[in-house]
Design goal:
alpha+beta, 3-stranded antiparallel β-sheet, 49% helix, globular
């Protein structure tokens, strides 16, 4: 088994930053471009992050290419 080339702690910190931003701000909307700029990550990384957030139910696509916090039990109602 080879040495891990990715910085797992840094990656986890980026994901946690996104999750915290979404959970604490239910009105936030994201696109791949805004996420890329916010985090300072490559476009492809921003796409992967959004895909994983969507598959987990944390965000949902509210219009083509625009993502907002998803609904989950116990969460505040969406304001829009």
């Amino acid at each position: 088994m080879g040495e891990e080339r990715r910085n797992i702690r840094a990656r986890a910190a980026v994901v946690q930053r996104v999750i915290d931003g979404i959970v604490q701000n239910p009105s936030v909307t994201l696109t791949v471009n805004t996420l890329q700029t916010w985090l300072g990550v490559p476009f492809e990384a921003a796409e992967r992050i959004l895909d994983r957030l969507a598959s987990s139910g944390l965000v949902r696509e509210v219009q083509k290419g625009v993502w907002a916090r998803g609904n989950w039990p116990g969460a505040e109602r969406q304001w829009y």
